[in-house]
Design goal:
- This is DevA family ABC transporter ATP-binding protein.
- GO terms for molecular function: ATP binding.
- Belongs to the ABC transporter superfamily.
- Residues 8-229 form the ABC transporter domain.
- The structure is a single chain.
- This protein has 230 residues and is an alpha/beta fold.
- Helices cover 31% and strands 27% of the residues.
- It is built from six helices and ten strands; from the N terminus they run E-E-E-H-E-E-H-E-H-H-H-E-H-E-E-E.
- The strands form two sheets. The chain has a six-stranded mixed β-sheet with strand order 6-7-8-3-9-10, sandwiched between helices. It has a four-stranded antiparallel β-sheet with strand order 2-1-4-5, with helices on one face.
- Helix 3 packs across helix 4, helix 3 runs parallel beside helix 5 (150-162) and helix 5 packs parallel to helix 6.
- The chain starts with 5 loop residues before the first strand and ends with a strand.
- The model has no long low-confidence stretch (mean pLDDT 89).
- Bound molecules: adenosine-5'-triphosphate.
- Adenosine-5'-triphosphate binds at residues 17-18, 26, 44, 46-52.
Length: 230
């Protein structure tokens, strides 16, 4: 049977912002491969290009130069429709959870399922509830974000990211707004759920206390991947 080796494979990936004399290069010849189910942490100083790289891998920006493959599909030159399809296989967790304040925890998780037309509202509701149960918020499903703590909101964001059983989760400083205990709980939960679903994680963090969940740590400086820490 044909096996896809890597979930993400970047080769000589370059990226620029600005035009003409204002054009500046942000990423330089990035080579990176991520395996199925692997947890990779990316560290690096502010402005080194971490979020830019994450957004390219997530199909949220167009690839300008070099090759970037997601599940063996080339993103360079991919149509918008193709990028939308690819995004369905990816879960996103941001620093500030980005929950919709006028929706309950369940509805916030449910809408990411309802983007998939093949699922009934009833089924989406049941799956959203099961996922919230998995992140230990079964007793908070009808709460609005303003009624939840920072850690609980981030757990809703994890439930929303994982409910579609994505192949990859991209997490941009998921613990930045949390105290150390809540931050630890969040990454433990991400690790557990990802291992259960064989979902790879690429996580950007400045938080050195959570590096131990990583299978591999990569470091970026001035737009270049400089070393693999382990
Ligand atoms: N839309 C944009 N237009 C122009 N320059 C940008 C844009 N987005 C980011 N940059 C620049 O690209 C560089 C890399 O930014 P990026 O957000 O990827 O860094 P980062 O490593 O994620 O930083 P931080 O840790 O502070 O979030 C920075 O110099 C930033 O100013």
């Amino acid at each position: 049977m044909f096996m896809v080796d890597f979930i993400v494979s970047a080769k000589n990936l370059n990226h620029y912002f600005g035009k003409q004399i204002l054009k500046s290069q942000i990423l330089f010849n990035i080579n990176l491969q991520i395996k199925h189910g692997e947890i990779v942490t990316m560290t690096g100083p502010s402005g080194s290009g971490k979020t830019t790289l994450l957004s390219l891998i997530g199909g949220l920006r167009s690839v300008q130069k070099g090759s970037l493959k997601f599940l063996n599909q080339e993103l360079y030159g991919a149509s918008n429709d193709r990028l939308v399809q690819i995004r369905r296989h990816i879960g996103y967790i941001f620093q500030s959870h980005n929950l919709l304040n006028f929706l309950t925890a369940r509805q916030n998780v449910q809408i990411s399922l309802e983007l998939d037309n093949n699922i009934s509202k009833w089924e989406a509701q049941k799956k959203a509830e099961a996922m919230l149960d998995a992140v230990k918020l079964g007793n908070r499903i009808n709460y609005y974000p303003c009624e939840l703590s920072g850690g609980q909101k981030q757990r809703v964001a994890i439930a929303r990211a994982l409910v579609n059983h994505p192949k990859l989760v991209l997490a941009d400083e998921p613990t930045a707004a949390l105290d150390s205990k809540s931050g630890r709980d969040i990454v433990n939960l991400m690790q557990l759920l990802a291992k259960e679903q064989n979902c790879a994680i690429l996580m950007v963090t400045h938080d050195t206390r959570i590096l131990d969940i990583s299978d591999r740590i990569i470091h970026i400086e001035d737009g270049r991947l400089v070393k693999e820490v382990c």
